[in-house]
Amino acid sequence: PAYIPEVADAKLPDDFLWGVASAAFQVEGAVDAEGKGPSVWDLIPHRWVNSIADNTTGDVAANEYYLYKQDNARLKALGIQSYSFTLAWTRFFPFGRGPVNEQGVAHYDDLFTDIEANGIKSVVTLFHWDTPLALFNSYGAWTSEDIVADYVNYAKYAIMRYDKYVTAWYTFNEPQYCNWRFSNYPFGTILPSYNGIGTGGLRAQYLCGHYTLLAHATIYKWYKNVYKGTKPMTFKNSANYIIANSSSAADQEAVQRVNDYNMGWYGGVWTNGGDYPASLKDTLGDILPVYTQAQKDLIAGAADFYAIDAYTTLYAAAPPNGIAACVANRSDPNYPQCATTTQLQPNGFPAGPNADAGATWLYSTPGGVRPFLSFITKEYFPKVKSIVVSEFGFADPAEASFNTLEQILWDLRRADYMQSFLDNILAARVLDGVNVTGAFAWAIYDNFEWNSGLGTKFGLQYVNNTSYERYPKASMFQFLNWFKLHGEDKTATANITAPVGK
Ligand code: PNW
Questions:
Q1: In the prediction, which pLDDT does 397 show?
Q2: 249: CA distance to ligand 1 center in Å?
Q3: Which Gene Ontology terms describe the biological processes this protein takes part in (predicted)?
């Protein structure tokens, strides 16, 4: 049943991009196969004691490296239009730079041809956190400007080889997690520190953000102006809809600060002429690197659409001692964001902080995406012309302890989340006039959920971690049914009058 009755009969245009998503390190396994070099994520589960909640590793993950033909056949059989997946830099350039690994490239040649042969569209991310370990060892990876040239060298190679197969490009997944997902800077006890940066410092985080956005903008401008590429390109943002905890001015300001620190940090592409928001500059001072005018010009306008990984909804409040006191004190626990967030309580289903360490950040509040899409379009980034929800998904807190196949496959909370989330996206489009042009569910199947390990499950398909068989869950059928009901009405496009900016 529709959660939003007004959209029960509404249709999406044919060119609405939709499907399921994955990331190389989370699904591929085969971490040392066919010439692949090590990434930081190959090392972390083995060398950093207790870094992974259930002590699993990504060594095999979902074994996709060997099972991709079955996976693609299954996507086709299920009727999924598009697959959003990522490429592992260390399969192309095992040491991050230097000679190309032909075996790794041959593997991706096969993958792309097979996806195409199954009639599925490829949506491709060039970098999803699996930084080549060699670049960490030689210059501290994302804390050094050297990373820009190495990323650009890899990205150019992958783009030139695969552009013809790709429907849309993402340069980066969620640079908002630059602080540690890209390299796990806190594991400086295993790897040395670089550039005067110790372990997990703020300076490392903001250097990482700085060079990531420069790398993104450099490859974007090359793709459009030199290569003359025609496919849409952007990077994937990570942010959630933020509601003020109260009507007080301080809590309103807290909302603004949370948005600045998540979205505004990389928002120079659409606003501020390529620069950082004033709140970051004021608060961070000399911690925040400075863009030259030429760099700001490079960044401004360096994207074709806004991609948002939106999972949940949060309240924001001023920190206990107030925003001003926090901004003035670098050792305040809330520095530099100087706002606190708490989760909106989910409707209907219990979700508890203690139920599953991997999902504490993710209450099921899919209603937030509708106002969030309006917020992005109308208020925040006036230059955004269209939005793709590049990831949304749910890890049921109870799923880790499910043990019968029936319990696992009857994932009603995730099915509920899918139905409600999609209804809200559709409502944003047809009732609120937001030009949302795509939606991708995370994840194609259960996979290696970073520091939460294999035990935290986001899949629309269950993966048996002994046989590696995949089984579609109820949520997969809910998802597919939704697109059967709402997809493919050729008349719909003409009815959408999307506002572009203010
Ligand atoms: C995404 N949040 O990260 C990543 O792109 C995936 O690799 C990951 O598996 C997936 O979400 C599920 O965690 C996010 O706090 C991490 O809102 C955190 C948030 C959102 C996305």
A1: 75
A2: 30
A3: carbohydrate metabolic process
As a whole number of angstroms, the longest Cα–Cα distance in the chain is: 59
Beta strands, E only, 393-474: 436-442, 461-463, 470-472
The DSSP secondary structure of 69-127, one letter per residue, reads HHHHHHHHHHT--EEEEE--HHHHSTTSSSS--HHHHHHHHHHHHHHHHTT-EEEEES-
Percent of the chain's residues with pLDDT above 90: 75
The residue with greater pLDDT, 139 or 389, is 389
Residue 406 DSSP code: H
pLDDT at 329: 94
Chain centre distance of CA 233: 14
Q: Confidence band (pLDDT; 50, 70, 90) for 398?
A: confident
Residue 164 burial by Cβ neighbours in a 10 Å radius (0-12, 13-18, 19+): exposed
What's the pTM value of the predicted model, to 2 decimals?
0.94
Which ipTM value was assigned to this complex? Answer: 0.95
Residue 370 scores a pLDDT above 80: yes
Instruction: State the residue for tokens 């696992």.
Output: 408
CA distances from 366 to 159, 262, 330, 392, 430 (A): 34, 19, 35, 9, 17
On whether the CB atoms of residues 102 and 143 are closer than 8 A, the answer is: no
Q: What is the overall mean pLDDT for the chain?
A: 90
Sheet holding 313-317, edge to edge: 241-244, 313-317, 340-343
Q: Is 446 in the pocket of ligand 1 (CB under 6 A)?
A: no
The pLDDT tens digits for 113-136 are 999 999 999 999 999 999 999 998
Tell me 194's DSSP state: B
The Cα–Cα gap between 312 and 316 comes to: 13
356: nearest Cα among 240, 470, 449: 449
What is the helix, strand, coil percentage profile of the chain, to 5? Answer: 45, 15, 40
Going from the Cα of 161 to the center of ligand 1, the distance in angstroms, rounded, reads 28
Catalytic residue among 174, 253, 399, 449: 174
Q: Is 193 helix (H, G, I), strand (E, B) or coil?
A: coil
Angle separating helix axes 146-162 and 102-117, nearest 10 degrees? 50
Does the beta carbon of 381 sit less than 6 angstroms from any atom of ligand 1? Answer: no
Among protein residues, the one with the nearest Cα to ligand 1's atom 13 is: 449
Tokens (6 digits) for 346:
């989910």
Say what the pLDDT of residue 436 is. Answer: 97
**CA 21 to ligand 1 centroid distance, Å:** 12
Among residues 160, 97, 158, 102, the alpha carbon closest in space to that of 128 is found at 158
